[in-house]
Amino acid sequence: MNKPTSQSQFETPKVTTGPLPGSRRVYTSPATAPALKVPHREIDLHPTANEPPVRVYDTSGPYSDPHHKLDVEHGLPRHRLDWYKDRQVEAYEGRPLSPLDNGGASGKYLAREFPVRNKPLRARTEAAPVDSASSPCSMGEDTSWDSTKRAPLTQYEFAKAGIITPEMVYVAERENLGRKAAVEGAAARIADGESFGASIPEHVTPEFVRDEIARGRAIIPANINHPELEPMIIGRNFLTKINANIGNSAVASSVEEEVEKMVWAIRWGADTVMDLSTGKNIHNTREWILRNSPVPIGTVPIYQALEKVNGIAEDLTWEVFRDTLIEQAEQGVDYFTIHAGVRLAYVPLTADRVTGIVSRGGSIMAKWCLAHHKESFLYTHFEEICDIMRAYDVSFSLGDGLRPGSIADANDRAQFAELETLGELTKIAWEKGCQVMIEGPGHVAMHKIKENMDKQLKECHEAPFYTLGPLTTDIAPGYDHITSGIGAAMIGWFGCAMLCYVTPKEHLGLPDRDDVKVGVVTYKIAAHAGDLAKGHPAAKIRDDALSRARFEFRWEDQFNLALDPETARDFHDQTLPKEAHKVAHFCSMCGPKFCSMEITREIRDTFGSARAPNAVDAEAGMAEKAAEFKALGGEIYLEADKAQPVD
Amino acid sequence: MNKPTSQSQFETPKVTTGPLPGSRRVYTSPATAPALKVPHREIDLHPTANEPPVRVYDTSGPYSDPHHKLDVEHGLPRHRLDWYKDRQVEAYEGRPLSPLDNGGASGKYLAREFPVRNKPLRARTEAAPVDSASSPCSMGEDTSWDSTKRAPLTQYEFAKAGIITPEMVYVAERENLGRKAAVEGAAARIADGESFGASIPEHVTPEFVRDEIARGRAIIPANINHPELEPMIIGRNFLTKINANIGNSAVASSVEEEVEKMVWAIRWGADTVMDLSTGKNIHNTREWILRNSPVPIGTVPIYQALEKVNGIAEDLTWEVFRDTLIEQAEQGVDYFTIHAGVRLAYVPLTADRVTGIVSRGGSIMAKWCLAHHKESFLYTHFEEICDIMRAYDVSFSLGDGLRPGSIADANDRAQFAELETLGELTKIAWEKGCQVMIEGPGHVAMHKIKENMDKQLKECHEAPFYTLGPLTTDIAPGYDHITSGIGAAMIGWFGCAMLCYVTPKEHLGLPDRDDVKVGVVTYKIAAHAGDLAKGHPAAKIRDDALSRARFEFRWEDQFNLALDPETARDFHDQTLPKEAHKVAHFCSMCGPKFCSMEITREIRDTFGSARAPNAVDAEAGMAEKAAEFKALGGEIYLEADKAQPVD
User: Pathway, per UniProt (chains A, B) (predicted)?
Assistant: First the structure.
């Protein structure tokens, strides 16, 4: 099915590097952990601003750091390995690679294997020898998944035990972006928001992170086999995150494209990336992505399992699925979408829907359940799934296989029946020691969005919610990044912890490089708008900095503070191309002769920066003020040289 | 300041014509008024759909009608003239054109005058002779604006008098799109929505329209001198409308571009168009636009008045402004933005803002007030403004000159003080017999949007609200159609009657053709998402039709039902270019081998279309069902010829 990757076969992926305009990647170290180097991005402002650089959250990884020596063939530094010293982990040979893992691709159709192979790690069996690496075992026969037999390894287990891990310290430092700068008046900012029950602290401490994880309200997706990771946290009391999907499909794409898509997506702000590859070369493609990814990688293991049974859903078995879980866990996938809530009894509830089951994983399981008239093996084997995921600290993303595919089907019984089951499974996963988040819709008109958030918090005991959009109307294919951006901003405000992006190509085709960028930027907007409305203490800093730049005609600062500096500059240059206009005290709306903002400057000169008197008091002494103003006579005209027409 | 229009000077504007893909412009006549021809657009579906055409609201005017004989040099048919027969109107010579009206442009810099000149109409003075055309009068000296001296002419006055005008009958028919089709189950649909106090009827009658106008809750912007108009209504109990701004600026654009921008904007769904031209040739540009516009045209008269005093705000006088109102009213402008709420005492309230006053009209008046230390002449002469506007039925759009220009300044005292004054002015305008709507912000974080809507309804006595966005964050210049589309959808849901679009170029440059289209489509999304959430009985019809097309792989129908069929088709073709794929039973997400929607079809085959049993009942008889299902054995594979790889 897949197109030949001959040319790409021996090619090293070309990835985008270098800082964003006006930005530097900087690192800070928590006082308690000087060895940790936590990345941020700092945007330098023009000297006339007389303001410190604006620090923003950075997802781009070492790719934006000119000092980093990039080598895609070897992958990113495996810095987290040092953090495992005191953990009960064992290295082992791992599951042997099977041709099926790449869909039986061979010859010129087989994507090149990643050059470096590392032994996988997992939680040590209590019985196992200290150097278990010397005692290889074949996962195929491994029967020791019973979690009671393995040492605790997950962030959830550490948190419950009161242990603060380096990952927790790292994300606390990372989340504190600009918090100190925001401290004075931060209370006011928090008050200036409606958080719907979220409790966002003034300052994020490692202890706060630990507590949120222990309560199941946040997760740090961080597979022990993904040491290249720059840990991040997902929870409604932290910055709202976004996910970008990539993945080759049966009808398009290649390994190189997928690695660059990942690098490109995180450059613009994707906090996690899901590899939704289907067809051939899934294993090798995923290995290249993981070894080069500083962000958590999520997958939907049932997709690969289906490939292993040649696309025939009813041929799926627990054994094939289990084998796929282990394969991907050993590679380092950080979270798995598991559609264990699609129960046999719920399938008929979708029969009268306008768009039935639109989740690919959901429909695979529905078909399996019907064909065998059996309960889903994902549901019946859920505890074993937990045991496997726990051994590597793969987080659950409990899939919404029955999400609505249209406005007409939103919030129906099928959707909510599954959500209730996801709540039941959440408790089981927690008991097993796993980290859990919950996936949500989909297509939902605005007035039905809050019900989704409220019901998820209630049924799933405040486990983080992770939604796709939702799209607020069905009538705009080609613009579904926007129809869904509206819903995403709202549900982010209501408490959704992570928003899965939608690109302009949704429903129509596979996103290209530009679509990925537009999708990511749109979702950064939604996530940030939600943080602002929640009253996140750090969110408003960037808006205010950009607004001051706008007011003071610091065009370069306005571009550089934008989510997409390149597009902002390009749009400006289309109307006012001359370099001179970058410093001009006017914009294209009013033109050089008259300028609204100039007038405000005059008002400010007249009344000073002290809090303005209220309307009534203002009347008093206005004559005097007006006199001063005339005296000032600050004109709004520009010097002739700046007032030339632009052709 | 303006660029030479030499080449354009003798050129006839080229405009875009022809129907949208799969669409026909159709006309219906109300039973009570067979002479009226009310336009709609019908989208034909594929025969396999076995569904009637989907009727949608059509703003495109005769330009999309292949049967219409287009002549931009003569303008659109002046069909409304027949409706005036029984009205107390007089034709008169009108105000003589002054070189200042075009900014003193001359020679190759002067845009060509529109070839046809019609005598303006106005409400007759009770005293005036029946054929007042024989008694020319110079508006310059006219002193008979006292409204008690002129016959009632406005839709508001007719409505108060219990008179149903052809305009009211026309908009009732126009708004009833698909209502009949929606009647069964419409109640359910209405129940399925949160209207926040709006009362949208099952079926819109002329009497309902009259009553809403009489209550001041809706307006029909329809200057007596714009007989080319296809009347539309603005009110929260009707479909949410959108406005697109065009206009040449001191730094760019030409007459031809502006006329085509108008035609282009309405093609994609703009319900009204504001001409915000500055610089030279304002008068002639506006005439070309009006004579060719089937939608209401709005302006901000203070912009042209400022040009008449060479851009020096403090040189503005009531006389210059009054003269400009008459000039534009005679041309047929349907609504004026009047910033009469920017009072002297409110100016100091903006001194401590992050972005001060960003409204161009607001800052012009603020400067005037400060320079003279006088109350705004728009406020002190408000009743005379009402008298002039009433004589032509120009509707008020009371401007929000103190709207916030940043998240930091939203909902502050300056903004709300002005809003309270607008409420006071609304009552005066109504007493004078004028139609009124109220302009709103701007830049507002999500949690502060509803307060804007609630306060506007309260302070302005339910007069229609007309907002710009609002933008929900400041950090995404280049994407402000999206940052504002989020806020627009929300405030539309809360009750905003019309949404002023924002293009991707906002804050950066002047929108080109593509920006206008993207802005309009984005705002159609916002308006429609709002109507869906309000439970508008007709809104969901199009979503459901498109969702059925999507589910049944009727790709052509999915494209044609989209707000932007061309982009939808183009995106699809980028991934699956072959014509064959337009009928393929798969999409690029899953590929030819496995298809989610196929599986739902199988489920539907298994359980039939009867309402599905609930989860518990479902268990019973499932074995039997599964047996049937296996018997059916409907496979999801496609024939080999459809399953070829696509390169």
Answer: Cofactor biosynthesis; thiamine diphosphate biosynthesis
Q: Does B306 touch chain A (CB under 8 A)?
A: yes
Interface test with B, best of A1, A355, A486 (most B CBs within 10 A): A486
Whether residues B447 and A413 touch (CB distance < 8 A) is answered with no
In sequence order, which ranges of A552-591 are alpha helices (DSSP H)?
Answer: 555-561, 565-575
Pair B182, B541: CB distance under 8 Å: yes
Cβ of residue B188 closer than 8 Å to a chain A Cβ: no
Token code pair at residue A124: 């040590």
Window 511-540 of B, Cβ < 8 Å to A: 512, 521-522, 524-526, 528-530, 532-535, 540
Query: CA nearest B368: which of B380, B360, B376, B356?
Result: B376
Chain B environment of A405 (Cβ under 8 Å): 547, 550-551
User: Which of B505, B576, B546 is CA-nearest to residue A505?
Assistant: B576
Taking CA–CA distances from B279, the nearest residue in chain A reads A591
Q: Please give the full DSSP string across A105-142, using - where no structure is assigned.
A: --GGGSPPPPS-----EEEPBTTS-TTGGGS---GGG-
Tell me the pLDDT tens digit for each residue of A262-307: 999 999 999 999 999 888 899 999 999 999 999 999 999 999 999 9
Q: Are B301 and B324 in contact (CB under 8 A)?
A: yes
Give the C-alpha separation, A519 to A506, whole Å: 10
Supply the pLDDT for residue A451.
98
The answer to whether A248 and A279 have CB atoms below 8 angstroms apart is: yes
Sorting pLDDT into bands at 50, 70 and 90, what band is B109?
Answer: confident
Give per-residue pLDDT as tens, B381-430: 999 999 999 999 999 999 999 999 999 999 999 999 999 999 999 999 99
Burial class, A384, CB count within 10 angstroms (exposed 0-12 / middle 13-18 / buried 19+): middle
B466 is in an annotated binding site: yes
Q: What is the DSSP letter of B573?
A: H
Beta bridge partners of A476: none
A1 touches chain B (CB under 8 A): yes
Contact residues, A window 608-647, toward B, CB-based 8 Å cutoff? 608-616, 618-619, 622-623, 625-627, 629-630, 636, 643, 645-647
**Helix-helix angle B449-459:B480-494, to 10 degrees:** 50
Please choose, from the candidates A461, A544, A445, A470, the residue with its C-alpha nearest in 3D space to the C-alpha of residue A236: A461
For residues B228 and B246, what is the distance between their CA atoms, to the nearest angstrom? Answer: 19
3-state secondary structure labels for all residues of B422-479: HHHHHHHHHHCCCCEEEEECCECCHHHHHHHHHHHHHHCCCCCEEEECCECCCCCCCC
**pTM of the full predicted structure?**
0.91
**CA–CA gap between residue B431 and residue B546 (Å, rounded):** 46
Å between B10 CA and nearest CA of chain A? 20
What tokens does B390 get? 């009433």
- Closest-CA distance of chain B to residue A516, Å: 14
For the stretch A43-82, pLDDT in tens is: 999 999 999 999 999 999 999 999 999 999 999 999 999 9
Nearest CA in chain A to B618: A345
Q: Please list every residue in chain A whose beta carbon sits closer than 8 Å to the beta carbon of residue B647.
A: 3
**CA–CA dist A435, A338 (Å, integer):** 13
Closest chain A C-alpha to B121 CA, distance in angstroms: 33
Whether residues B357 and A603 touch (CB distance < 8 A) is answered with yes
Q: Taking phi first (over 0 means left), then psi (-120 to 50 degrees means alpha), and beta for anything else, what does residue B591 get?
A: left
Cα distance between the two ends of chain A: 53
The parts of chain A modelled with pLDDT lower than 50 are: 1-9, 128-141, 182-183, 185-190, 609-647
pLDDT for B210-257, tens place per residue?
999 999 999 999 999 999 999 999 999 999 999 999 987 655 557 788
